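#onboarding

Welcome to the new folks! Below is a worked example of what a typical request in this channel looks like: someone posts a single protein sequence, and someone else replies with the predicted structure as tokens. Don't worry about understanding the tokens yet, we'll cover that in week two.

Example request:
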Amino acid sequence: VSYMVGKDRIIFATKEDHETPSSAELVADDPDDPYEEQGLILPNGDINWNCPCLGGMASGPCGEQFKSAFSCFHYSTEEIKGSDCVDQFRAMQECMQKYPDLYPQEDENEEKEKSSKDLEATPLEASAAKEEKGSS
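Example response:
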């Protein structure tokens, strides 16, 4: 299943699609694409939504929320830049939480698990080092 969004084609892959070898052909970048070489901010100060540096965030299921939040931040004139954009960023985050496969987030629980695994590994390494010293 695929559909077009602007110049991008959104394709939904099934488990079966992933199990068959890819027949995708890489297409060279269009040297005439006026957005390709511009960077994130265009010469007129507008945001270049086609910039590869955005990693596709401007398209996808939360693209509109991302554009709203990023635009708000970019054009913010508050003393603490972006402090007037809390609602837009909250909406973007809520959207992204609905698509954890597309927008993986570091979960606090994962962080705790990682640090406890690191702690578990340390005593084993320490005792192994003592055994080596003791046997020589």
